[in-house]
Amino acid sequence: MNIPHRVVIVGFPPAQMLDIAGPVDAFSAANDLVKANGAAAPYEVVLAAPEVGLLRTSAGFPLVASISVHDPDLKADTLILAGGEGARRSIHNRTLVDRLRSLCKTAGRVGSVCTGSFPLAATGLLNDRRTTTHWAHFGEFCDAFPSVLLDRDALFIRDGKYQCSAGVSAGIDSVLALIEEDCGRTLALQVARELVVYLKRPGGQSQFSSQLATQFNTESSSRFAELLKWMASQSREDLSVQRLAARVAMSPRNFHRRFTEALGTTPANYVQTLRLDEARRLLTDGTLSIERIAARSGYASSEAMRAAFQRHLQVSPSEFRLRFRSTGSR
């Protein structure tokens, strides 16, 4: 009889619900798919918290922790620390941090979702290791843990037995990589299909930190919202201020001013973001040469694209492709 791999997810009240529910659903889908083929479920998933019972969440709906992290019998093959306001606060509870350190040392694998990286880093076990967290908390994280090497673009990243993921939904990306490691690519693909998500999502989280902010600002201007939708499909074309201004029937000078006010960035910077995102998508999704990707993304040359990658992402296109096409970090 196969013994299921024990996954313990730790929530800290108030916890971010999706940080817990996303990984749980991914592991549950893997169990269901394997059992449908007549085999034993590969995972046992347990929710733990500082106290047994109702676990408050930021969504207002409680979850139920079946065991306390302080229970001496608690053991995990894979330990995952969920994020949320409670996770960030927990770093000041030395008794809790000491217990988490002990659990991390005995677990075969340790992960975090979103700001679950805070209590994990507080244990000291991430010192001199590469990690990531939610982009909105980069500054806070670096101030609190200067000895941890923060990757600001990874959706998730693996360093030794520690695998940390960025904000909320990136926890699913991270768990899919764990499922692929444990059970193979075929099952991981089936789980991704079941959840209607990418197995390997294109790009890194910097695309979300910059463009989501832009989208929020754009909602106040339906004229620019339509223009941005059009621009997204035209990254390889001429997107000069003159052409964009003509499309919305404005003078170039007035367009530049209004666009910058509405989106918080200049037209040239926004076009650069579009082209970077298109290049990153092509680098992660296919096998086109760097030269062809540069042309398809609207760059004048592959050297121009390399310069843009170094300036904005601090990696070359080739390095980006190697990083984001691996299952160890994205």
Overview of this protein structure:
The strands form three sheets. A seven-stranded mixed β-sheet has the order 5-2-1-6-7-11-10. Strands 3-4 form a two-stranded antiparallel sheet. Strand 1, helix 1 and strand 2 (43-49) form a beta-alpha-beta unit. With 330 residues, it is of the alpha/beta class. It is built from 15 helices and eleven strands. 41% of the residues are buried. Helix content is 50%, strand content 13%. It folds into two domains: 5-195, Rossmann fold (3-Layer(aba) Sandwich); 206-324, Arc Repressor Mutant, subunit A. Helix 6 runs antiparallel to helix 7, helix 10 packs across helix 11 and helix 12 packs across helix 15 (317-324). It starts with a strand and ends in a 6-residue tail after the last helix. It has helices spanning 17-36, 85-89, 94-106, 117-122, 138-144, 170-183, 185-195, 206-218, 222-232, 241-247, 252-263, 267-285, 290-297, 302-313, 317-324; strands at residues 5-10, 43-49, 53-55, 63-65, 67-68, 78-81, 109-113, 130-131, 149-150, 156-159, 162-165. The radius of gyration is 22 Å and the shape is elongated.
